[in-house]
């Protein structure tokens, strides 16, 4: 079947198969992406990140329901960690989103990180594009539970929501250099617990110290996701940020930076793929590795030679 | 091109016992599969839609309530009805031996009863996923 054409005609099965093709790097993946690309750029992408157990999935579930009430269609990409040992993964974010499963205006896809360390999988950006081309108005990208430095989400999202919970105590100090720098909006979830006010005060203090003084000062909202509290306010804040990005020209700047990053990644991927595929299949790769191990060659000369041969 | 077997582990029906499903999910993960776990009390409609969105190779149903003769074939039919013709539907739980031929007849590829080593499930999936 012509996956891209069927996807554009509204087939959910084709949407699902297209994601698999891209995620598994099937031969037809590039052709599919090429066909879909002209239909992308319409969706608004919201990243949801934060430590494990903060309530990202539950919060996403509630946020999505608000957008659905507004009549918007939604795509959700939920990333969970792949085991570095077995290559397997338990993808469990759907458990919190079961009520959305039968909503035809919602499409949820779980992804394993498959070796990526930035909180997303290498193909997440492509899956965003696929859902975008399928006509989703809003796309949520939920990262793995993150610690300090998994900040790839900023490269994929228009608005990044960092979900925190009270009780991490002084850990706020430890994580401030990482994910706290990437929040456009902060959600203090489980805000009915002790320490929510203190966390808010600490966050505010940290934001006040921010020297980079962007025109957008990140907003802090308190939520109790499983009770549905603070959700409408959080959506209003996300929408405010989206409006700010639009009027300030920041959205164009962010999307241009993203396009640039993606182009660089694509160039790197295609070049290395082309060379590696060849030399691995011919057995040359093993021979070169053996030569290196015995110090009969140096890797810099090898790469120089390969580039000269392939990049003519 | 990488091969990743994706398995939806789902609990149809109304029983609240998911320890077996979790043990199987964990074993499948350790075998290198991507396991999508959807939790308790899923309707056949929800299971089918989740299988479609996740583009899984296998739907593994765990059921202890006794409703397997109704729910397993229903999932098979709904999955096929959505065009997922290659998807393997397998089942497990407390299922009387006498019911197994009927379930297979209905399109359930395999039925694993209590005491099955998880390795048999893994081997079956590896051997039968297209």
How are the SSEs ordered, and which strands pair?
The complex is a heterodimer of chains A (312) and B (130).
Chain A: H1 3-8, H2 12-23, H3 29-36, E1 44-49, H4 56-69, E2 74-80, E3 89-91, E4 106-112, H5 124-133, E5 138-142, H6 153-156, E6 159-164, H7 171-175, E7 185-188, H8 196-208, E8 219-222, H9 231-248, H10 250-281, H11 284-293, H12 299-310
Parallel strand pairs in A: 1-5, 1-6, 2-4, 2-5, 6-7, 7-8
Chain B: E1 6-10, H1 19-30, E2 34-37, H2 44-54, E3 58-62, H3 68-81, E4 88-92, H4 100-105, E5 110-112, H5 118-128
Parallel strand pairs in B: 1-2, 1-3, 3-4, 4-5
Helix pairs in contact in B: 1-5, 2-3
Would you give an account of this structure?
The complex is a heterodimer of chains A (312) and B (130). Chain A is α/β, with parallel strands linked by helices. Chain A has three domains: 1-39, no CATH class; 40-248, Rossmann fold; 260-310, no CATH class. Chain A is 46% helix and 13% strand. Chain A contains twelve helices and eight strands. Chain A has a seven-stranded parallel β-sheet with strand order 4-2-5-1-6-7-8, with helices on both faces. In chain A, strand 6 (159-164), helix 7 and strand 7 (185-188) form a beta-alpha-beta unit. The two termini of chain A are 36 Å apart. In chain A, 39% of the residues are buried. By secondary structure, chain B is an alpha/beta fold. Chain B has one domain (6-128): 3-Layer(aba) Sandwich (Rossmann fold). In chain B, 42% of the residues lie in helices and 17% in strands. Chain B contains five helices and five strands, in the order βαβαβαβαβα. Chain B has helices at residues 19-30, 44-54, 68-81, 100-105, 118-128, and strands spanning 6-10, 34-37, 58-62, 88-92, 110-112. A five-stranded parallel β-sheet of chain B has the order 2-1-3-4-5, sandwiched between helices. The longest helix of chain B is centred in the middle third of the chain and has 14 residues, at 68-81. Chain B is globular and about 35 Å long. Chain B starts with 5 loop residues before the first strand and ends with a helix. The model of chain B has no long low-confidence stretch (mean pLDDT 93). Classes of the chains: A alpha/beta (312), B alpha/beta (130). The interface between A and B is medium-sized, with 31 and 30 residues.
């Amino acid at each position: 079947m012509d996956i891209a054409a069927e996807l554009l005609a509204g087939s959910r099965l084709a949407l699902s198969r297209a994601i698999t093709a891209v995620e598994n790097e099937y031969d037809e993946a590039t052709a599919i992406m090429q066909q879909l690309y002209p239909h992308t750029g319409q969706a608004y992408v919201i990243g949801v990140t934060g430590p494990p157990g903060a309530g990202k999935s539950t919060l996403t579930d509630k946020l999505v329901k608000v957008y659905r009430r507004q009549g918007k269609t939604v795509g959700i990409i939920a990333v969970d960690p792949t085991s570095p040992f077995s290559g397997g993964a338990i993808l469990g974010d759907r458990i919190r989103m079961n009520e959305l499963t039968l909503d035809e205006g919602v499409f949820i896809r779980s992804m394993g990180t498959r070796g990526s360390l930035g909180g997303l999988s290498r193909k997440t950006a492509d899956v965003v594009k696929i859902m975008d081309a399928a006509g989703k108005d809003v796309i949520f990208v939920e990262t793995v539970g993150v610690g300090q430095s998994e900040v790839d989400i900023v490269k994929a999202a228009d608005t990044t929501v960092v979900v925190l919970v009270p009780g991490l105590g002084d850990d706020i100090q430890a994580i401030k250099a990482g994910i706290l720098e990437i929040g456009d909006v902060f959600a203090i979830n489980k805000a009915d617990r002790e320490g929510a006010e203190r966390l808010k005060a600490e966050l505010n203090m940290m934001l006040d110290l921010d020297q980079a003084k962007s025109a957008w000062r990140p907003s802090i909202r308190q939520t109790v996701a499983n009770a549905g509290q603070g959700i409408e306010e959080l959506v209003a804040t996300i929408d405010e940020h989206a409006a700010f990005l639009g009027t300030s020209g920041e959205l164009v700047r962010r999307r241009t930076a993203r396009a640039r990053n993606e182009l660089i990644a694509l160039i790197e991927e295609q070049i290395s793929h082309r060379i590696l595929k060849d030399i691995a299949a011919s057995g040359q790769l093993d021979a070169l590795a053996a030569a290196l191990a015995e110090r009969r060659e140096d890797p810099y000369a090898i790469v120089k030679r390969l580039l000269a041969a392939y990049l003519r | 091109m990488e091969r990743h077997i994706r398995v939806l582990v789902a609990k149809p029906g109304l029983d609240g016992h998911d320890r077996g499903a979790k043990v199987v999910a964990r074993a499948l993960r350790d075998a290198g599969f991507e396991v999508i776990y959807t939790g308790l009390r899923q309707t056949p409609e929800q299971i089918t839609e989740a299988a479609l969105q996740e583009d899984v190779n296998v739907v593994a149903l765990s059921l202890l309530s006794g409703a397997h003769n109704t729910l397993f074939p229903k999932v098979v039919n709904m999955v096929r009805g959505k065009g997922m013709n290659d998807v393997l539907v397998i089942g497990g739980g407390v299922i009387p031996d006498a019911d197994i031929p009927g379930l297979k007849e209905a399109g359930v590829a395999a039925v694993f009863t209590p005491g099955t080593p998880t390795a048999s499930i893994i081997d079956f999936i590896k051997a039968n996923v297209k």
